[in-house]
Amino acid sequence: MGFPPTEPTASRSASSERSRRASDGITASHRRFTKRAAFALLWGLTVHDKAAPDRAFLESLPLIETAALDERDLVKKGVDMALRALGKRNEALRRAAVTLANRLASSSQGSQAWIGRNSLRELSWRRARA
To answer: What is the C-alpha to C-alpha distance for residues 55 and 48, in angstroms, rounded to an integer?
Structure first.
């Protein structure tokens, strides 16, 4: 049967909005690869969806903070990758990502602290270079 044909009139932003909603829904999953896929999708949106408003990414910060508690390596790296990409999008998002990364780095939870330190290292280096 295959996939249904795509609508030629569907806009890129409508597709991105569906992707964001899907990402929000699957971040709650307890399955390792599903959860990592959600953050890989978020990473992809931060890099490729140039028309997306900052608000859409700011709303994902609480999801990142919650998922940062997951100690599984694949999930932890996916969350870290999404936070770093979000911080590289523009200066306003970089400030929000650094604020979250500082909060995570000071956490007593191992995975949160690792994600926070790793993200800060890259986002601070990027700031110094820019």
So the answer is: 16
Place of tokens 């993200």: 119
Return the structure tokens found at 32.
Answer: 């390792």
Cα angle 23-27-33, degrees, rounded to a multiple of 5: 95
pLDDT digits (tens, 9 = 90+) for 8-59: 434 445 555 655 555 555 555 567 778 888 899 999 999 998 888 999 899 9
Question: 4 in a domain, yes or no?
Answer: no
For residues 46 and 15, give the distance between their C-alpha atoms in angstroms, rounded to a whole number: 14
Q: Say how many domains are in the chain.
A: 1
Let me know if residue 6 belongs to a domain: no
Q: Which domain holds residue 72?
A: 15-129
Model confidence, pTM: 0.75
